[in-house]
Amino acid sequence: MKVGDGSTDAKRRAAERAAEEVADGAVVGLGTGSTTAHAIEAIGRAVAEGLEVRGVATSRQSAALARAVGIPLAPLEAVDGIDLAIDGADQVADGDLVKGGGAAHTREKLIDAAAERFVVIVDDSKLADRLDWPVPVAVLRGAEGVVADRIRELGGEPTLREAERKDGPVVTDDGHLVLDGDFGTIEDPGELAADLSAIPGVVEHGLFVGLVDAIYVGSDDGVEVREYE
Questions:
Q1: What is the pTM of this model?
Q2: Which residues are catalytic?
């Protein structure tokens, strides 16, 4: 099941509910994307009202927004740990995710996995019975041909992601290229995640398996909170 863009109001509802989890004095991982932007803005409003937090950004985009709304930032290496990470997803199925539509999944996975609690915010258009969204794979420059061949061996169809407003491929904040691997319906996300991680030249992939603690799902009717152990 392919997903759509979803409702802006539904995204905002989920994001603002998740932002209520941020406790005074917390270190918060700040994800990337349109849904997470609503959460960053909500946290910024709370900071303006006296909440003390530090944010750890997953991309230049989220860092710029955090600064604009007054959230103090720190690099990952400067904090003792992350209390809560809030992030979005391109598709969700049974607690597993595909992420990386914004090509920030390498830093997102690092920060989300390091968090004591990781919550995902989506609108209900992102829900699926099984993951079938193309999996973003960040690769070292010069390794894209080798990695593409290995993705084909795993049953996927790789496409080098092209930039929309300039000639040439997308380049991540860390200088990597992105291959989007279309595997159709992913029967075993954990197995595919392990196989992709084992490919030489792969920096990180967008399958997030077994990392989520809660998902906030926004809809026209409100917000559903799904907890995972």
A1: 0.93
A2: 108
